[in-house]
Give the backbone structure.
Amino acid sequence: MADGTSLSTQLWIAGAVEDYMRQCMGCHGRDGLGAPPAVPRLVGFMGYYARSVEGRAYLVRVPGVANAPIDDLRLTALLNWTLDTYSAAELPPDFEPFTTKEVALLRAQRLSTPAQIRRTVLTDLAKAGLIDPGLVSATLKSRSLNTSNDADPTK
Ligand code: HEC
């Protein structure tokens, strides 16, 4: 951590790291590599979703995020930390961090078919020229359509 980082920022980061380890690492791994094809990697990828309105919503609505047993404030900090840590380079230049209000609204809108929504979001991003279409087809090809969040977290 850089010198000069304020104490409140340090505490904020510490809380998010701990929440990541408890709520996310079992499936997505310490380095955000996931366990493809069942569990997608976050590293170098999740920031792309923030490039569209639907993708941004998907980041909160995806079951692993929306259903995490932590309150809206902590989930917001966790999600912003995860994006910044694993995928800052893929975020759009005008990216605004998630607000607690936004997270509260979106997480209440449960996704019943995450794999399908994921496919639609990624395909639309590719059509809009916001992500390399080759990257999208490689990602989608490696996942069967009916894969859901019942993936084995023990890899
Ligand atoms: C039980 C395993 C599991 C846990 C725990 C889990 N996830 Fe996931 N995550 C998945 C799977 C599987 C997907 C793919 C979408 C789906 O089918 O739900 C996914 C998708 C995602 C995505 C969208 C990435 C993409 O390319 O589709 C993000 C972002 C994400 N998870 C973040 C998190 C965060 C942050 C946490 C902790 C709060 C978390 N996940 C906890 C399994 C998990």
